[in-house]
Amino acid sequence: MSAPDICDExxxxxxxxxxxxxxxxxxxxxxxxxxxxxxxxxxxNASQFRPDTDLRAWLMTIMHNIFVNDVVRAANAxxxxxxxxxxxxxxxxxxxxxxxxxxxxxxxxxxxxxxPAEQREIVLLVGLEEMSxxxxxxxxNLPMGTVMSRLSRARSKLRVLLARD
Length: 165
What we know:
By secondary structure, the protein is an all-alpha fold. Helix content is 69%, strand content 0%. It contains 8 helices and no strands. It has helices at residues 3-12, 14-25, 28-44, 55-76, 103-114, 117-128, 133-140, 144-164. Helix 2 packs antiparallel against helix 6 (117-128) and helix 4 packs across helix 7. The longest helix has 22 residues, at 55-76. Pfam families: PhyR_sigma2, Sigma70_r4_2. This is RNA polymerase sigma factor. It comes from Paraburkholderia edwinii.
């Protein structure tokens, strides 16, 4: 596959990449940054893409790796804030509730955010991106059984979270 061909095909996957990134991160700006970082890395490493493989899975793998690295980096850089710190303004931590058009979508988005990142990724790839278990296993470099068990645990937790609300 030539460089212009792979670029054109990458562009056709941008809507899916954006949808997945926004579901992972909720914050549109951070999600768009993740898509941009994914495409940048994919273009920089286009010579490593094997034409006989699934470009969407390859792009999702790149996005997954960037996301995981960012989560680890953020976890290591967290600042502890005392609960009784009077200098904290509550409005700084308020979440804009206008991101969802319906209560069900908001509740589902909230429940998804409560899942561990490794479970949330699999739910989104299977449910939102309609990838097969095999494609998810390949994209995330996991055994098929791990994908299935994480998905099962995630679905169970989502049922509990959504029933509680």
